[in-house]
């Protein structure tokens, strides 16, 4: 068995992102990287997600250059992985972002249990801030993908 590695086409990368709902989001602030697992929905070059306020949101507000990575490993020795570099954009509850926010909502609402995950915090969130749920998009700048396969 030989392992073969090839780059994925742009279209393959987008297709994989569209079919993925779980990945790792990396952001960076003041030279310190921060990576967290999260759910998202990707459509038309944007990965939408949902969050409570916290470190990643604060850091992405400070530095909107972020990276999203997804992978699949269907069998031992074979895998594919996509890395998206993009720009964080908060979808605020304002006229300017109204349509985009509704779009994000409708995509994410197809997987209602995401809300629970995105809402969880180790300590109780005071009711006063319970409405501070955030929607945001990662707008694709560039993307790369690699596939590793075992061939006879
Ligand atoms: C399968 C899965 C799906 C998830 N989906 C979502 C989602 O859709 N939306 C969403 O907002 N969150 C999701 N999460 C949770 C996410 O990974 C973060 O834990 C969460 O968003 C809090 O991040 P924060 O930056 O706001 O942390 P804060 O509450 O601000 O806490 C920061 C501190 O907690 C630590 N910390 C935070 N998260 C983690 C972690 N995951 N592992 C270890 N240490 C951590 C940091 O290192 C730092 O010390 C998901 C997690 C998993 C495993």
Main attributes?
globular, 4 helices, 48% strand, 8 strands, 24% helix, 8-stranded antiparallel β-sheet, alpha+beta, binds flavin-adenine dinucleotide, 152 residues, Pnp Oxidase, Chain A
Report on this structure:
The protein is of the alpha+beta class. The chain has one domain (2-144): Pnp Oxidase, Chain A, CATH 2.30.110.10. Helix content is 24%, strand content 48%. It has helices at 10-19, 55-62, 98-109, 113-119; strands spanning 2-7, 22-29, 32-39, 41-43, 46-51, 65-75, 78-90, 134-151. Strands 1, 2, 3, 4, 5, 6, 7 and 8 form an 8-stranded antiparallel beta sheet that branches. Strand 6 and strand 7 form a beta hairpin. The longest helix is centred in the C-terminal third of the chain and has 12 residues, at 98-109. Bound molecules: flavin-adenine dinucleotide. Flavin-adenine dinucleotide is lined by residues 22, 36-39, 49-51, 54-56, 114, 117-118, 121.
Assign the CATH superfamily: Electron Transport, Fmn-binding Protein, Chain A
CATH top level assignment: Mainly Beta
Number of continuous helical runs: 4
The 3D shape can be described as globular
Question: Structural class of the secondary elements?
Answer: alpha+beta
Bound heterogens, unique: flavin-adenine dinucleotide
What is the end-to-end distance? 5 Å
Rg, Å, rounded = 17 Å
Give the name of the CATH architecture: Roll
- The residue-averaged pLDDT reads 90
For the biggest sheet, the summary is: 8 strands, antiparallel
Helix and strand pattern? EHEEEEHEEHHE
Count of DSSP E strands?
8
Number of spatially distinct domains: 1
CATH topology grouping: Pnp Oxidase, Chain A
């Amino acid at each position: 068995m030989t392992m073969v590695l090839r780059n994925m086409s742009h279209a393959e990368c987008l297709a994989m992102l569209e079919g993925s709902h779980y990945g790792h989001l990396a952001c960076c602030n003041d030279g310190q990287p921060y990576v967290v697992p999260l759910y998202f929905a990707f459509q038309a070059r944007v990965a939408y997600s949902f969050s409570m306020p916290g470190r990643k949101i604060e850091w992405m507000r400070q530095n909107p250059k972020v990276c999203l990575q997804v992978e699949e490993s269907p069998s031992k020795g074979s895998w594919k992985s996509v890395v998206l570099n993009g720009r964080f954009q908060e979808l605020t509850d304002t006229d300017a972002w109204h349509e985009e926010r509704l779009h994000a909502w409708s995509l994410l609402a197809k997987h209602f249990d995401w809300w629970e995950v995105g809402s969880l915090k180790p300590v109780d969130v005071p009711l006063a801030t319970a409405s501070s749920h955030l929607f945001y998009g990662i707008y694709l700048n560039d993307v790369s993908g690699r596939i590793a396969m075992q061939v006879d």
